[in-house]
User: Fold these one by one.
Assistant:
Number 1:
Amino acid sequence: MEGDKAASGGGGLVLLNCFVSPFGNRVRIALKRKGLPYEEQPQNLADKSPLLLSSNPVHAKVPVLLVGGKSVCESLVILEFIDDAFSGEGEPLLPAAPCARSHARFWASYVDTKLPECAARVWRSPKGAAAVVEEGKKDLVAVLKTLEAELGAKPYFAGDALGYVDVALVPFAPWFLTYEKFGGFSVAAECPALAAWAARCARENECVAQSLPEPEHVFQFVCGMRKMFGLD
Ligand SMILES: N[C@@H](CCC(=O)N[C@@H](CS)C(=O)NCC(=O)O)C(=O)O
């Protein structure tokens, strides 16, 4: 890809993002962790910009990483791109061994296929759809417990330091408050080790602490979005 030249020079990186997007915030974490300079262009997803539509014409979603003007789309693809294009800068997110790489990709894919879908039933259901919310909460707690079991006694999914699965999952942590408020449960009570892991990620990694929104801001944003969609 032509963009690799610009990428390996470290210049010309532009992130199209929305501050609450767990997917976009994965990319923030990865860029900050590598110490790469980039410009962030916040996107209004209710009124998509021509730049977003032209740089991600298939999905029209954030995040998009523009690399010397070329676009890289899909957050997990972007994380791998950053690992590949900037392999000289710091530790990679994915481990080198093929089995360990596959294992990490499996769990990141588990997060993507399971978590957002259950969570959306909790926070995005119309007021009054109590049975849908309840079922979503049950499924969401089961997903979080599965992730907690995979974490086990390790400080990070990757072992002793932040890795690919940690970066894939931790941007959902600021959403926990929103899930709790709409679902009527407590993540810390259901999954204490996972809650402690999320706090550890932010406490021990500046790249995480600097990349994630305040949980209350996410909640306010979601309340505004629900109003806009006529869900309340
Ligand atoms: N699989 C995508 C998901 C990206 C995604 O769902 N982005 C949301 C924001 S959190 C979005 O742009 N939504 C706009 C829309 O659905 O129209 C990724 O990992 O990048």
Note: The chain has two domains: 3-85, 98-228.
Number 2:
Amino acid sequence: MEMPASPQYLPNRRRFSDPFHEFLYPENESLEDKAARLKREADAKKRSDEIDEMIRQDRIERKKSKAEVSVLLLGQSESGKSTTLKRSVLSQVQKSLDRVVCVCRCLTLSNVFIFSPEFQLLHSPSAFHAERIAWRAVIYLNLVKILDALSPEADLEDHDDESLETATVIITSNGLPPSAISETKIPNYEDYRRRLEPLADLEERLTRLLSCPEEDEAVRLPAKSATNGISGEITMTDAISVAPNGRPTPTIIIPSTNYSQSMPVTPNGSGSSSPIGSGTSRTKEVAIHTSTNWKKTFSLTRSKSPKSAHSGEIEGWWEDPYDPVHALNACAPAMLELWKDPLVKKRLREKRLRLEESAGFYLDEISRITAKKFIPTDADILKARLKTIGVVEHTFIIPSGNNKGVKWKIYDVGGARNQRHAWAPYFEDVNAIIFLAPISAFDQVLTEDPQVNRLEDSLLLWKSVASNKLLGNVNIVLFLNKCDLLQAGPKYYPFRAKLDAGVRLNEHMVSYGDRPNDYDSVSKYFKNKFAAIHHSVTPNKERELYTHLTSVTDTRRTATIICDVRDIIIKDNLRNLRLV
Ligand SMILES: Nc1nc2c(ncn2[C@@H]2O[C@H](COP(=O)(O)OP(=O)(O)OP(=O)(O)O)[C@@H](O)[C@H]2O)c(=O)[nH]1
Ligand SMILES: [Mg+2]
């Protein structure tokens, strides 16, 4: 509250035009009157200051009681952001179960994650399982699409724009373009093709079910923005569909081809100029708006009910003759034969397709996944790939010292280049950033720009985030992710983890020099490299960087890291609140 200034400081114009002037500053007031007026003014000022202070305190109190933490997950596409979010939610579930107390509740702002609605596992195990089975659709589709990679038609010859969009990964090879690599013929292929024919229809059906065309909410970004901009640059200039709240509308995509492909990469890290391959997907990528309730569509609980609310056992979907499981189940023997065929494996080796980078996981689980009563495990859900478009918000409450708990908002962004412009609006009110850099990708290139090495892109992106002034006071946690693919990862034939398989870092990063090509040296090198960039560009020299070597699909190892990170963020946030 501001008091009027004394008359002597008012410009003449004001004295004549101000109707209250005579009342506030009488012309011929006596000394006593003036003293009384000044006292009244001083009292009023004091009261006003007291009210201002009360308002300020009230604001602080309200802010404290509404203690809220916003965390932004950043990183290039396929760095593991959505998996980290799934992982965080899972560790919430696990922690809560361990304590056997209802400690938190997930709000329903996002439809994407199975655990969001009302924290069903704790309150209603049967409902939780019902949501879990909804992930079958995504897993089935991931499995069907990865089978494309096994097909001899998965050739590397067609270089149209669409195939460029869908190729995923490049690894070092003998320097020959993939098309020049000799190719093993698969005599049984026609037989496989005939027996797997129903999967083409199934793929289409699953796509339709997931994207719910009747809701017509699938969103595609303008193709124009797909490859423009410099790697790592975050701009707000590109067009994107915008929600009523002014923020971009989230969408998820099931990539049409989900496998890795070989291609020479030059030692300085930039990809060869040869166009890369091509996926041979039967369909384009499926874009699914996150408000599309695909889980509901696919949970098949509409007409089926849990056998027992206590056991959480669900019965029913396998009795539905139209359920996709029947087609999959019927094709399982052919799928298994195809995957186990030594000639197919040989061909994969020749083409340097790295299935273990993506949905290859499911190929070793064909029998289990195609079983009629298959219920996805946590690991299945963590591996299920849904590409994020836009920004997906996930909210839940974590109890803290005071009994009101802390509201957490986690924003999971799309990491592809044409998505990065959507990040900036979230920078203003974020408390912490978890930045993911998949360090196993040092020999790969971007799907959206095969000229760019993935790790180079991650480093540029990291620099851009670490130097951002808007984020100067924001805690940054760095996850150097996919460490399992560097060493002692899943032993998928024909490739083992990269370093074990002899892929050399110094062939892709000259600066690595002649250091040993083992996990300890490589991970230390990356830790130092990212830390050095942060140190040199951060606008806030006081900011501490928390770095973790992670494999976020590894349930056991990640749970502890997530809890540590959560505690760090909460502590810092509370400290900031006290400083207000
Ligand atoms: N082996 C292994 N796979 C991982 C790891 N982290 C993520 N993945 C897999 O990598 C794929 C991509 O992960 P996502 O979490 O969808 O990647 P994202 O960063 O959200 O990608 P966008 O949504 O495109 O930005 C998924 O199939 C994950 O299962 C990891 O630490 N190790
Ligand atoms: Mg994602």
Note: Residues 31-65 form the longest helix (35 residues).
